[in-house]
Every structure is written in C-alpha cells, then in structure tokens.
Amino acid sequence: MTDAHLIAELHATLRRRETPETVAKLVRRALPTPGAALAHLSEVIGGSIQRFFGLSSMPTTFHEPPTAEKQVAKARELAQLFLEGDLPQADDPDALDDFIDAFDALIGKARGQSNFKADRLDRAERGDLGLSRRRYAKLFRLAGRLERKAAKLRDEQAKLDLVLIGKAALASRLSLEDLGGDPATASFVAYYAARMKLRSEFTVDGQQRPFDALSADLLKICEENPDTRWWAIAHVFPRADVLARLSEAERGRLLGIWFDILQVLADRLDTVRARTAIDTETMIVKRGNDSTTWNVLAGAWNRARDHWIALVEAMGADGLLDTVMPGKVMRLMAADVAAWHRSIGQDIHPDTIVWRSLPAPWLVLKGEASCTRADIEQACARAGIDPVKSGWAAARPRTAVAAFRPTPELVHGVAVSNPYLASYLRRVGAFSGKAYKPIAELD
What we know:
Shape: globular
Number of helices: 20
Order of helices and strands: HHHHHHHHHHHHHHHHHHEEHH
Structural class: mainly alpha
Number of strands: 2
Mean pLDDT: 84
Low-confidence stretches: none
Strand order of the largest sheet: 1-2
Largest sheet: 2 strands, antiparallel
Radius of gyration: 25 Å
C-alpha cells in the first residue's frame, strides 16, 4: 500500500474513536523504519484486546446526527407528483439549504415564514401554482419540517464538533492536505489524537495522560524529519517548542480559531446552566440537570482554553492574561462518585474550590465579570494547589511521559475483563444507574 493510502487511513481515524492500539498498527505500516519507536510500537500493538478476543464491544465512531434523507426524499417525490419540478440533491447542510430554497420557490414560500395560519398563500395564489388547498397544505407543512430539520441538523453537527474538540482538540478539522503527504506527521497526529480520545474510566485515581512513550518517540521522529507539518501537529499538541516552529501568521490564525470556539462555548454553557438549574457550588448532578451536555461543553472549554493560553504565551502576549483570564469549567460529578471520594477520606477536589471562588468563565469572556491571572493564582493558593502545574494559570507543559496501559473494555466507565461480558452487561443495563432489563426482554 502506498504512503498516500496509509496517510489517508490515518487521517480517517481523526473523526473516529479507534483505540491507540489500532492506530499503532497503521503507524507501523506507515513508518517502515521507525527506529527507536519500534519497541514502544510493539508494546502498544501487543496490548490490544482484539489480539486476544478478535473484537471489541466498544464502538469506533461517535454518534452522528441523523440526516434529513427521509424528508428530502418525500419533498422530491411530492414536487415531481404535484408540481412537475425537479429538485437538487441534499448531501450536507449547505446542500440542504439550497434544496429548501428550491422547494420553497416551487410553492411560493419564503424561508422562515412557516406559520400555518398567517403565511400560507390565498386561493388565487394557490391557483396560479395549480394546487388544491389540500395539496398545498401538505407541501407547506413539509417545507416547515424541512426548515426545522435543517436547523436541528446544523445544531447537532455543531454539538458533534464540540464533542470532537473536547476529545482531541482540532484533530477532526485537519484536512488530508494539512498532513502534507508526510507519514511522520500523520502518525503522530493520529496516534496522539487516539490517546486523547480514550474513554474515561470510573476511578478516583485520575485518567490516563495522552502523551505516552510512543507519542514521545513519534514526536522525536517528526523533529528529525524535514517534511514535518508542524501546523498540523499544533492542532493537537500546543507545546511551546511546537508552536515556536509556526509562523506568526499561523499562530495568530490558530489563536483566532480557539477564541471563536470559546465564544461559542460561553453561550452554550450559560444556556445549559440556566435551562437545567445546575448547582455550580457543589457540581454534583441533580435530577433534571443535563449533565451529558454540560460535561461535553466543559471538556471542550478546558481544551480550548488550554490551547488559547498556549498560543497567547507563544506569541509573547502574556500581558493579556494579566488583564483577562477566564477560569476552567468543572464537570458535573455523579453523587455516587462524590460519595466514593468521601468514603476514602477525600474531601472536595481543590479544582472545585478554585472554581467556586472565581466568576463564571462565560461571564468573563463576555466582559460581564472580571478575572485575571492574579485572581486565579490567589484562588489556587487558597486551595493549596500549584496554579501552573494544575493548568489554571498557564498552559499544560506536556513534557511528562505517561506509562502506556492497554485500552480496557469499559461499560459506563467500569473496566470489564472481555468484550463478550462487556456486551452482555451493557445489554442488561449494568452500571447505567437504571433498573436491569430481564433476560427475556433481550431475546
């Protein structure tokens, strides 16, 4: 297989959730002479649970928003049946917008005017189109459904983009051209992104850090490679030495991308907080909280904030952080996890103490509250944590190399010995917080 095909396979993993072991197999083929990385590559590949069982119960894709295929097919059918008109295809949101405009034009409707009582054509206008009242009403209702579907599709795709950002920074936004046909670049970006996308485990000991020994080896190969695309690597790994290899214009472009993402997240966080009455003091889930959405947004915010701070520092604009520096956003914690912490003698996490004492980050970003680096440093001092090492007052250094652990089979964060048992436990509802399903209901 050619380098181009292997790079395309590595690129395809950026929007997926392949395990690091699976990506390492592609890396081994893409880098036929990986040198010092060979030992760590063999260790990672050898740890694959699929090597022992031949499968994994965990999906390798993120949930994609449902398309408007059904509504588009119906609109095309009715247009040909009643209006003798052809409509274009609609394969993506932009094409769907063009499709809706074409359909609206066929029935004399303006975009956004979907009120069934106030916006429909009168009898004479329907007559000009050759439509009976009943047929026109059917088409009018379908046009409204198409517009609502298009709006929902865009919103769901925006949510998926934020999910991917929270998991693997800007990896999913990299084009094949951004990788520049370079196997070393593609290998590091794909493997490191896979490490970032590891699922969270149900533990009080902290999650795995993505930068492991193989990541370090692959980065070393990139450093010795004249064809490395540092622009692509900076999308996922904003360490100071990586950002130093970018041009001023490239750093400024990335800074703008991350700030735009923070603005989107600020609006969404404030909306979810207000809509589901989240207790920002305890950060413990209560009935009615949309914890899933909140935690997705919190993860994306913290990732975006970290990259934004790294770029501000790389551009020598540290003075900005002395003026405005929004804090991190805490995830909501399940009550049973909080009780587990208390049972082993752990009190409130220091990060939560810092969070409580600072103004809401979204208000700071909107200019409705003030928070500076000095404010964060003082809050960290009161909580007894290092403001730099904790990532509160500086970008994470990304220098420590984590030990590799094989990716476990997980059911709601709980490690399970094999994928067959994991599939069964997932089907009966184990660890989901809901009542178990009787075996008879599964057959």
